[in-house]
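Re: beginner question about structure tokens

> Can someone show what the tokenized structure looks like for a real chain? I only ever see the sequence side.

Sure, here's an example I had lying around. Input first:
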Amino acid sequence: MKKYFPLAFLGATTLFASAAVTQPTPYIMVDFNSEATVTKATIGKDVTFVNTGVDKDGIEWEADPITFFNDGKGVTATDGYVLVPDGAYIHLDISDLPGFTNPQDPENPYVGTYSVFWDIKVSKLGTYYCLLQTNPGNSTDAKLCINGSGKLGSGFLQRYNSDWTAEVDTWYRVGATFHQPDGLYALYVNGKCIEDGTSGNVSNIGGRFALEKEGLLFFADEDGEDSPIYCSKAMFFDRDLSMEEVATLGDPKTEITASSDVADVLANNGISVNVDNAAKVVTVNVAEGIAEVNIYNVTGIKVNEAAVEGSYTWSYTGAAPGVYVVSVNQNGKKATKKLIVK
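And the corresponding structure tokens:
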């Protein structure tokens, strides 16, 4: 029998923050748990490991390759991780994200609102560890680092935060959020905000922290001022997360439960989610029982919800362009699917 129970259509005034905060879904997430799939994304596009190239002077270079480990020294005894050596880095492709346009460079839109998080550990202090490089050609300094004293920040943010110090051989979930056009940023360690502020380098279109469509780099620096760093998980979000959302990410032992495909996670329960871009509809099919379906826009505002038994269809013909998340929950099992409306 085909039936569903619509709960409400919620307009833009219904804030997600008014309800319990749900763990956000990364746009791209890589969890280094298997050597065979080490560059395959758990969510979103696969990443690329880079250890060769040509510098700005045309000179070819080669670094040691990124190496996978599962030796009991990860976040847990069974957790895998990688060592990113000097010179090597990880490239993320964000070419399908909408951006803002610099009037002086209209052919190259930028992405200015986003969040990045890593599960990392360092083996010594006294040296720099580069985390975020916004220049896809790696021809400038890294934009977010841990300095020789174990402090998080950068000269581009005009300081290194003094409220947290990294300890060697300790896993941390470290990250940052950036927001255009007001230039707001925040730094986080293990789900807690250690600094928030405003930097002119963030707010300028095409500025230091704006991302080019060719992508962004993790653990890269152009002139060798980085050091080998261990990474267990890397995440990129296509929006700036709230402090409450970051709190749900927790520390490296906090599981990131979101999945890129509801069908993969809930198929055994007879649940599937299908997106028909031609008809502009999302269809949720439930073989048995009732599943809760919630749809959020990129700012976390819930735009539709339903308790589904059988089949349910949501039309996004009139939806504003942007990224939406379809969240399905049945009997405590949760999964999400990302929808891009153009």
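Each token stands for a local structural state, so reading them left to right follows the chain. Confidence is low (pLDDT under 50) at residues 1-19, 259-265.
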